[in-house]
Structures are given as C-alpha cells and as structure tokens.
C-alpha cells in the first residue's frame, strides 16, 4: 500500500494553553507515521469560509458536524478569537505513512471520545453533553473524517500556505510599550532519530516561558546551511581551543622521543595545528546537523543534506532571548542546572538537545538560514501537490 499524507491542526485554544508540546509528543510517539512538515497559520476569513464548505460536505456525523462547523467559525476568525482572549493561530502538522489518516484518528480520538485520557482529545479536549446536546466543545486537534475530506483540506492548506501561513509575528497583540523580542529555537537531529515524545516534551518545557510560537519549520539542514550557520565558529575555535591541542600534544608526545620536547616546542606545534583542529571540530558539528561530512563535498555542491531532521521554532514575547536560554540551560549538559532542557536531554557539548539564539542580533542572522525570516516559499505546497496529484508519496 502506498503512503498517505494526513494533517493534524493544533487548535488556537490548545496553542494558547501551551498544550502544543504534549499533543506533538503524542502524535509523534504513538503513531507509526513520519512527521514531514510543520507550519504556523493565521487564517484569513477567506480561508475559514472555504474550510467551512469542506466541513459541510464531509461525512462527520450529527451532532458533531455542526460542532466542528461552529468551532471553526468562532475560533479561526481573527476577531472572534481575540474576543475570547487568544489569537486564531493554528499549527499544521503533516504526517505520512501507511493508512496515515486511520493512524492519526486512532491517536487523536473520535469527536465524542473525550471521557478518558487514552487519546489526544481525551487528554487535551473537552466535549460536554447534556440530554444529547453538546454544551461545550474543544477538539484540541482538527483533522479529516475521511479521505476526500483529507484531500480537500490539504489542497486548502496548500492554497493559503504562503498568504496565511509561515512567520506570523504580527498576529499577537501586546500592551503598548512592551519590548518584544523574537528568538529562534532549533531542536537538534538526535531528537528525531526515532519516534519519541522528546520533541514534544522539550516544547512543553519551553512553554514555561509563557512565550508565543509564531513560526515553525521542520527541515533537513543542508551542508550550505550548516556552513553558514556554524562556519563562524572556526575562527572562534582557533583562538579558544588551542589549549585542547596543547593538552593532546603534551599527552601524546611525552616520552615519544629520545630528546626533550620543551613547552616552547609544544606551543609552536599547537600554533601550527590549532586552525586544523578548529576546522575539524566545526566539521563534526556540521556532519552531526546535516548527516554529511562537509569535507567530502566536491565541486562546491553544498546544497545537499543527509537524513537528519531539525525543528526550528520562533518564540515571541517580552525578554524572549533570556527566558528561552534560561529554560535551555548551559551549553555543556554536565554543567546545566537540573530541570533544564540540556540537563534532561543533552549528552555532550554537541548533542545538547537544542540550540537557541544568544541575542537579538544572532536571531536575525540565523532566521534566514533556517527559512524562518518571513516570506519564504512554502515547501509544503510541493509535498501536498505530490500526494494530491499522484495519490501517493
């Protein structure tokens, strides 16, 4: 059976209540599907109108068809959402795999199955009924009821991917005078080596900052991106890591010759080797992030990547840089404060869970490299088109 493509939309209310990480963790770890794309949307009224038409033509059973219709109409419109105290942002997650729609539905749960916590809706949603009437409805996740519903919504998401989606940093209202920062977080490749709740757990921890997610992109870092993102470290490492070269020379040359190797000799050799060592260390970082040793790339064909995945997220709010880095913890996991992300999930200086911009200037440099500067083309259009037109991916 060919792979299917299916979507899950994390609702505005779920985003506002910081349930995002828990939902993502469930969907990744409890399905046998591959997460292939993530994108933020702030839908226009035109998007909502067309989405309501799809819901109307779907096979969702009563009374839940009307529940979903009313929910979308009242929560995905900008004005209606703001009147309720949150924005109309939603997060799109695209999954592919065998029986993707059925697999997602199994983990998300039915519209009415909110009584127990064994599904996403059971844990994060609510459906209060009295005498057969639905009094309150919060589905936590919006997804398709059947294949045609799935395809039509995917086409709609593709149609508005660039107009209504991407970096939506002008959506959230703040009090006048609030100093707003936007910072980049990047969950590193070892979080996606296997199906795991780790990415969701980390997003859950970042939610403790009270900041707002205004951009998201799942991507495979290319060697070119790796060189641009980390290349500047080579000069820094040349200066700061000379002591490591010195220590290795002392350890390995002690007693190796029938003559004395002086401190001055060691220093001269360290000066000769420190640049090579820095180049090697940066190459290791880029290989970890991309899956490819940059020194093996020939003819400057650096626009390639291996099979690694990273999830880039933009967080916005007051003092965002400091808040995110406090939750992240020290670069060295062994020195990170307990309860921080790097203390819990980091292994060493390189595989330390996640990256976060250390200043507004750094965020401005890094965002265009990972494709979250705003205005970039939406790769999900190609992913959706490949499935809708060929019915397989």
Output the keywords.
elongated, 2 domains, 393 residues, 17 helices, alpha+beta, four-stranded antiparallel β-sheet, Alpha-Beta Plaits
Question: What does this 3D model show about the protein?
Answer:
The protein has 393 residues and is α+β, with helices and mostly antiparallel strands. The protein has 17 helices and ten strands. A four-stranded antiparallel sheet has the order 2-3-1-6, sandwiched between helices. A hairpin with a 2-residue loop joins strand 4 (126-130) and strand 5. The longest helix is centred in the last third of the chain and has 28 residues, at 263-290. The chain is elongated and about 95 Å long. The model has no long low-confidence stretch (mean pLDDT 94).
Main sheet, how many strands, which sense, barrel? 4 strands, antiparallel
Structural class: alpha+beta
Number of domains: 2
Order of SSEs, N→C? Answer: EHHEHHHEHHEEEHEHEHHHHEHHEHH
Give the full name of the CATH homologous superfamily of the largest domain: Nucleoside diphosphate kinase-like domain
Radius of gyration: 24 Å
Strand element count: 10
The helicity comes to: 40-55%
DSSP strand (E) fraction?
Answer: 15-25%
What is the annotated CATH architecture of the largest domain? 2-Layer Sandwich
> What is the C-level CATH assignment of the largest domain?
Alpha Beta
Uncertain segments are none
Strands of the biggest beta sheet: in what spatial order? 2-3-1-6
Mean pLDDT: 94
**Discrete helix count:** 17
| Gross morphology | elongated
What is the terminal separation in angstroms? 11 Å
